[in-house]
Specification:
Helix content of chain B: 25-40%
CATH class of chain A: Mainly Beta
Shape of chain A: globular
Number of strands of chain B: 5
Shape of chain B: globular
Order of helices and strands of chain B: HHEHEEEEHH
CATH superfamily of chain A: Porin
Largest interface: A-B, 51 and 42 residues
Strand content of chain A: over 45%
Structural class of chain B: alpha+beta
Radius of gyration of chain A: 23 Å
Oligomer: heterodimer
Number of helices of chain A: 2
Radius of gyration of chain B: 17 Å
Strand content of chain B: 25-35%
Structural class of chain A: mainly beta
Largest sheet of chain A: 16 strands, antiparallel, barrel
Strand order of the largest sheet of chain A: 1-2-3-4-5-6-7-8-9-10-11-12-13-14-15-16
Distance between the termini of chain B: 42 Å
Strand order of the largest sheet of chain B: 1-2-3-4-5
Order of helices and strands of chain A: HEEEEEHEEEEEEEEEEE
Number of domains of chain B: 1
CATH architecture of chain A: Beta Barrel
Chain lengths: 351, 175
Amino acid sequence: MKLLHLFSILFLIMVLNAQDDFFNPGYSIGGYGELHWNRELDKDGETTKNLMDFHRFIIYYGYNWTEEWSFKSEVELEHNFVQDGDGELELEQAYVNYHTDKWGFQGGVILPTVGLLNEYHEPPLFFSVERPDYSKYIIPTTWFGNGFALYGKVADFNLRLAILEDLEGEGISASGIRGARGKGYKTTGYSLVKNLSAVYTGINGLRLGGSLTLNDAPINDEPDTSISVQMFEVNAKYNANNIYAVFEYGQNSFEGNNFTSPLKTSSGYYLDLGYNIGSMVNCNKLIPWFRVSNVSTDVDTDSKIADYMRLGLTWWPIDNVAFKIDYGTKTIKSDTDNPTTQINLGIGYNF
Amino acid sequence: MKVSILIILTSFLVAGDIKITCEEHLFNLYPKNRDIRMHIFQLDKQIKNKVENIVKQRFYKDKLYYWTITEGDSTKAYAFLDNVIGKSMPITFMVILNIDGEIENVNVIKYREAYGSEVGSKSWLQQFINFNNNSDYNIGKDIDGISGATISVKSISKGMKKITTLYPLIQSQLK
């Protein structure tokens, strides 16, 4: 029996040594942040907004117990300050992850897979100083909540089903769905958000994605009155041969149950085109880019329909730091004679 | 006691998976008359620092696992196993170099995270074929990016550059 013990200990030492070569349990830290300087001018050139804002500061913390079991979290401070309704401190992600080669599970505070930016929103990943308004009002980025998800990979397709807390029906307005996010704060689970997504990555440099999201959003936490929400979106991103192109389109439908919905349909899109001229000017990455976009938070109300044109230049001295400048106009359909000019400067980073 | 032995044996088999996967990959790639042998290379501190400074990525350990692929007395290729860090988990991959230091084949042996596993796709890895220590590894220009796998793409690309940069410095010391 003693011999058996000795062999067991020897085996254990070998096992630990072998595992140590490729994986060690332990923590990982990351984060991102962005400083913005936003200016807006009316058609007469008068300044209507001049704001300097350290918009987001995020710390990522994760712990890997084993190769399969890990914990991941992100805490976010918005606008550098929290007091009396100003600024926000949010637990944007906090979940246990079980992962194998073919499938995985996440449970906790998670992100639904909806649009390109909801899961991947580190500032060096997108061109503009501010996230596109599409990703704010049509896709309520960053949308996070309590729930769990199952995901898997089949050939070149990544499939994911996320089940989350209900949206808050009373937060839906002619300004769209953004106010309906529960943000994990004492939320309900009567109907549950069902978010099904597929992403295809079979062609080098190209990512094609789409999702369908359904929920009966209770009004003031009472399921007898609700708004049925259906969100459908498609997205594409291409990054090869120095060409950077992004396209997203989404449509949200709303229907009241024992309740009059304040709107029926939101829709929008944006298209970004950029070309990396970094090698021409001998720097890491420098992209002049152009964006055209429409955001209609209520397609039946002209004052809620906006068209955007934007030009910008983004410079990455290293891949994790981006300096950004952009210039554009926003034209509201009900007031086309008074477009707003927007000029933004920004610095973003991630690690 | 039976249970503890069973757990230990199971763990051992799991830990051995990486080596088995690597050798299966090599046996599939090369004809049966090739001799494939595993070795461990102890990295000299000076060379290690030099390569890390050039590539801006650390070696995972002070040693590297590698395999020689020989036919008769002649070495045809070297396969290096390396670990790089993704967002939070290591990515284990194998680079096979011909004797001139050009990449012949790349394979992601183990990917451990929920996001970014596309770096393991053959069509993406195919881009590195024929790259050597003089190649540019710029993402989006020389190497196509993968949306949603930015960190993994960077880590793997640097990992390849690390091995091709190391090779001419240690070639004479390899078995």
